[in-house]
Amino acid sequence: MKSSKKQEMSDNQGDDLAHRVLNDIKASSDLGLLRCVQCGLCTSMCPASKHSDYDAREIIKRVLDGDESIIQDEIIWNCFYCYTCQSVCPVGNSVCQVTQILRQMAIDEDVGKQKIESFISFADNYIKEGLGSIPREYHGQLKIDYGQHWENLQENLEEVREQLGLDSMYLLPEAKKSIDKTLDAIGFKKRVQEIKDVRNR
Ligand code: SF4
Ligand code: SF4
Fold this sequence. Notes:
The chain is an all-alpha fold. It has helices at 4-11, 17-22, 41-45, 47-51, 56-64, 84-88, 95-107, 110-116, 120-129, 139-146, 148-155, 157-163, 173-185, 188-197. Helix 9 (120-129) runs antiparallel to helix 14 and helix 10 (139-146) packs across helix 11. The protein is elongated, with a radius of gyration of 22 Å. The N and C termini lie far apart (54 Å). Bound molecules: iron/sulfur cluster (2 copies). Residues 36-42, 56-57, 60, 89-91, 93, 95 line the site of one iron/sulfur cluster. Residues 46-49, 56, 79-85, 95-96, 99 line the site of one iron/sulfur cluster.
């Protein structure tokens, strides 16, 4: 009888969609994708399945059936990543992990890049400042949502911090430079550019 590790390794051979998902770096080593019994428990607990056409069980069925069209399907973007499906699955599968991997496959193609392109200003901000912050283009809506107090705070943030005895929230130049180099080295900037390039196709 094969040990579970050997079984796992033999399970992970093959280049069909299910095995590509299992072999993805994001997949847990014990992801029970091939053990799915289509019980539907994930769908019954899934908030995305409750409020949209998304069906967690169906996502897994299509992956197991080798239905490559799922990578292009808008439906994979409906998952909230709440992990409820993973917590209830009797065979250790995670629709949440599978959906994340499918999205990454979509991002490797134009269809996924187009999908996330609207968030690219967050990446631009990160490249510019070396830290995560809400891009200016969203400030108009936030002013409406949070009102005058929020607007005043944003406009006078540095002064307010100074009054409270806090240093600037922005990084020191050396730290910024080092983050900039890291973003180059890991290919982050290149990837951001590839996503922007889909606009012009
Ligand atoms: S709960 Fe697990 S076994 Fe049941 S359908 Fe969902 S993924 Fe498959
Ligand atoms: S992680 Fe996604 S698939 Fe799983 S229960 Fe939450 S919304 Fe549904």
